[in-house]
Write a structure and sequence with these properties.
233 residues, 10% strand
């Protein structure tokens, strides 16, 4: 696959003084404010409020900074219609992008389904496997051009467990568990898919970040567009 499943915040070195473009006082003030927000960025409305500049001045300065490649417009999954700006030196945080399961601010359900299928197939092939064993097996298969992180595999396995495709076991160190340390959690595919609970029919059942979803959190059923669509249906 060509998409990158990870989104690790990274920082590039700031341009040195000699190569930095000359900025007007207004541009410099606005740039400093945007830069101070790091990988969280700043909403245009907050930028206007905190800079205490007139709207036309802010817009003109933003255009100037973008033209000089000092700031960039980023998509925030919590407010896709809102304009957020960030210094080009930063990569948006997971709170902004939604993490590796999001592409351009949208939950990448196709990618999630592919990883789910791969995880299930490898668990079936291994018969009994730990998360690490599944991750290692997928990596060696070369099915993805980029490596899925252990956290991604863990999240997908939890979805498979919730959907009733696999069951969680504890190794006793004997027989089929001989390659797995005593007491370790491991997983086995169910020969016949059990009747899945109500959660499987709603978006929550396929959401890999369901365990990070809280009423007052960054990820919440209150602002989940997929949950709202399901309720409307």
């Amino acid at each position: 696959m060509s998409r990158t499943p990870t989104n690790v915040p990274a920082k590039r070195s700031r341009p040195n003084t000699k190569s930095s473009p000359v900025l007007s006082d207004i541009d410099q003030k606005l740039y400093n404010l945007i830069h101070s927000k790091g990988n969280q960025g700043i909403w245009l409305a907050d930028l206007k409020r905190e800079s205490r500049m007139q709207e036309n001045m802010v817009k003109k300065s933003i255009a100037s900074l973008e033209a000089k490649n000092l700031i960039k417009l980023v998509t925030n999954i919590q407010g896709k219609t809102r304009k957020y700006y960030m210094a080009v030196e930063f990569e948006p945080s997971i709170e902004i992008t939604g993490g590796p399961w999001y592409t351009d601010g949208h939950l990448d359900t196709d990618f999630i389904d592919i990883v789910k299928t791969q995880c299930l197939n490898h668990i079936k092939r291994l018969k009994i496997a730990t998360t690490e064993m599944v991750s290692d097996s997928i990596r060696k298969s070369g099915v993805f051009k980029v490596e899925c992180t252990i956290n991604q595999i863990t999240e997908i396995i939890q979805v498979l467990l919730l959907d009733g495709w696999i069951e969680q076991l504890t190794s006793n160190g004997m027989g089929d568990f001989s390659s797995i340390p005593l007491g370790r959690k491991c997983y086995q595919a169910l020969e016949k898919k059990e009747v899945v609970g109500a959660l499987s029919s709603i978006p929550c059942g396929v959401c890999p970040v369901i365990y990070e979803c809280t009423l007052d959190g960054i990820i919440s059923p209150i602002n989940c567009v997929y949950y709202k669509k399901w309720l409307d249906f």
